[in-house]
Amino acid sequence: MSILLAIVIGGLFAASFYLMLRRSLARLIVGLALLTNAANLLIFTAGGLTRASPAIVPEGETAPTMPVADPLPQALVLTAIVIGFGILAFTMVLAYRSFQAVGSDDVDDLRTTDSLDLLPPRPIPALVPPPAQELAVAEPAHREG
Questions:
Q1: Which residue from 38, 20, 21 is spatially nearest to 29, judged by alpha carbons?
Q2: Model's pTM, two decimal places?
Q3: b/e per residue, 91-125, with b = 16+ CB within 10 A?
Q4: Is 104 helix (H, G, I), strand (E, B) or coil?
Q5: Which of 16, 22, 23, 125: disulfide with 35, CB 3.0–4.6 Å?
Q6: Neighbours of 6 (CB within 10 A)
Q7: How far apart, in whole angstroms, are the C-alpha atoms of residue 42 and residue 13?
Q8: How much is the pLDDT for 58?
Q9: Is the separation of the CB atoms in 85 and 92 below 8 Å?
């Protein structure tokens, strides 16, 4: 079983590195997601996969009943999931903003952003609200007298 997991983890790492070396930001994000999943599987496999009971001490006992699953890899993977989600969310927002500024998800096109000099982002056509109708403002009547 551990040989199969090693092959799957190696395949996930290889696919993630391949996708992260591509020129598209969308592929970079998918590669990052694969990399975090491969790292989580690696931590679980290194911690040892067992079908043991949780490390909870029953009432009236001084030690848990053996065999007990190691809670450290589970805590590490839970932390890695949260950190990976935060990194993916930040990368997606960064890719969205760069697409607004450049108009492309190609990494080579990002080199042209040095000459933009902080221009406002171009609006995406589907998200632009329709122009507001200008209301005619009536001028106040002049009173004579």
A1: 20
A2: 0.68
A3: eeeebeebbebbeebeeebeeeeeeeeeeeeeeee
A4: coil
A5: 16
A6: 13
A7: 10
A8: 81
A9: no
pLDDT higher than threshold 90 for residue 16: yes
Residue type, 26: A
Instruction: Tell me the C-alpha distance between 48 and 66, whole Å.
Output: 15
Residue 28 near residue 22 (C-beta atoms within 8 A): yes
pLDDT tens, position by position, 33-89:
999 999 999 998 888 777 777 778 888 888 887 788 888 888 999 999 999 999 999
Domains of the chain: 2-53+68-113 (1.10.287.3510)
**Quick one: pLDDT band at residue 145, thresholds 50, 70, 90?**
low
